[in-house]
Amino acid sequence: MPRKSILEVKVLDVQKRRIPNKHYVYIIKVTWSNGSTEAIYRRYSKFFDLQMQMLDKFPMEGGQKDPKQRIIPFLPGKILFRRSHIRDVAIKRLIPIDEYCKALIQLPPYISQCDEVLQFFETRPEDLNPPKEEPIGKKRSGGDLAAADPMVLEQYVVVADYQKQESSEISLYAGQVVDIIEKNESGWWFVSTSDEQGWVPATCLEIQDGVQDEFSMQSEEVPWRYWSLPRHVARRRTLGDLYTSGWGQGGSCRDFLC
């Protein structure tokens, strides 16, 4: 039996989630070659991870050797978070992410139908029974922005330098202020600085009042060598197309963790 392929992808709206903490997901309609149509829900950080995998697996098509040879689309990247509600940022990314998905599945089959892309768009258990949250687009159409219950990103201070080890990470320097986009229970957080965004170890961060929160405290109990990275991304690449070069030197946060 031939493997099903993706025929169409459409990003429909943004939806607020409250578990495990407040965040937004994109509602995506996926049409498959077997005639089925399914709704899936993905955070922006999942798109980021997919892009890292694609650029690592297809370096030539990603323009690593020659930018003119690039055919992999650019992921909508850095949007200034400070002074912006997360809701507003998510909404601004809606159309660009829809365009990204459409461009991705129009690539040659060896890319558009590769395992990484198919697995990303396949229905997951958490897609089958989504929370009963009203899409943000409906709230906007009603004109009641207050009802959207906007969230503002938490700001944390870097307490020790960290030198990135993976292309999906960013480097940090002590004293730097970052916005927290996603707190992952693995101990890796998705953060935004004034120049870039990516994954960092939570133990390098402290909330601005000087107290580490529960997620960060839990991650300190896990030795560095046992941590699971957000995605298996090769360390040989850095991605100037998604963010600028890393900050800082030395990587003393690794010593802080061990």
Could you name the key traits of this structure?
single chain; 258 residues; alpha+beta; PX Domain; SH3 type barrels; 2 domains; 5-stranded antiparallel β-sheet; 3-stranded antiparallel β-sheet; 8 strands; disordered C terminus
What is this entry, summarized?
With 258 residues, this protein is an alpha+beta fold. The chain is 26% helix and 21% strand.
What would you say this structure looks like, in words?
- With 258 residues, the protein is an alpha+beta fold.
- The chain folds into two domains: 142 residues, PX Domain (2-Layer Sandwich); 104 residues, SH3 type barrels (Roll), CATH 2.30.30.
- 26% of the residues lie in helices and 21% in strands.
- The protein is globular and about 55 Å long.
- The N and C termini lie far apart (50 Å).
- The C terminus is likely disordered.
Strand order of the largest sheet: 7-6-5-4-8
Structural class: alpha+beta
Strand content: 15-25%
By DSSP (H or I, 4+ residues per run), the number of helices equals 9
Number of strands: 8
- Average pLDDT confidence is 75
CATH architecture of the largest domain: 2-Layer Sandwich
Counting structural domains, the number is 2
Determine the CATH topology of the largest domain.
PX Domain
Classified in CATH, the superfamily of the largest domain is Phox-like domain
Largest sheet: 5 strands, antiparallel
Distance between the termini: 50 Å
Radius of gyration from the CA trace?
Answer: 19 Å
Helix content: 25-40%
Pfam family, one: PX
Organism: Salvator merianae
GO molecular function: phosphatidylinositol binding; superoxide-generating NADPH oxidase activator activity
Main location: other
